From TrEMBL:
GO terms for cellular component: plasma membrane. It comes from Motacilla alba (White wagtail). The keyword Ribonucleoprotein does not apply. This is Epithelial membrane protein 1. Belongs to the PMP-22/EMP/MP20 family. InterPro entries: PMP-22/EMP/MP20-like, PMP22/EMP/MP20/Claudin, PMP22_EMP_MP20. Keywords: Glycoprotein, Membrane, Transmembrane, Transmembrane helix. The chain crosses the membrane at residues 7-29, 65-85, 97-118, 138-158. It is a multi-pass membrane protein.
Amino acid sequence: MLVLLAGIFVVHIATVIMLFVSTIANVWMVGSSNVGTISTGLWLLCNKTCTQLPVSSRDEAALKAVQAFMILSIIFSVVALVLFVIQLFTLEKGKRFYMTGAVMLVCWMCILIAVSIYTARFTGTVVYSTNPHHGYCFILAWICFCFSFIIGILYLVLRKK
C-alpha cells in the first residue's frame, strides 16, 4: 500500500510540473518560416525574439479562457496535492481520499476545457508561418489531462490502510 501511495504521489508531482511547463512555455503550435521556426503559446509569439501574441478580436475571449482554465488547473492540482498530504496524516484508517479525488477531477475538467477550446480555435494557425503543427506544450497538456483523470479516480477508490 505504501508503494501505491508513493507512486500516486510521484505521478501527481509530475503532473503539477508538466502543467506548469505546458502553461508557461510558448510551444503550443510550431511552424516554419523563411527566418526560422516560429512558435506560439498561450502568452507569446516567439521567432528569434518573443512578442505579444497577435490575436483577432473574435479569438481574444477564447485565448483568455484557455489561459484562465490552465491556471485554474494548476491551482486545483496543487490544492489536491496539499489535501492529499494533509489527509494522509489526519484521515482515520479505512477512510477514502474523497476530497483529494474531487479536487483532482475538477483539475481534470479545467484541463479538458482549456485544451478543447485551444484545439477548436487555434489548431493549425501560426501567424507568418507554413506547415503548422502541435508543439510539446500542447502534448504535455493532453498527457496531464490523462494523468489527472487517472489520479483523481485512484484517489476516490483508494483507502487509507
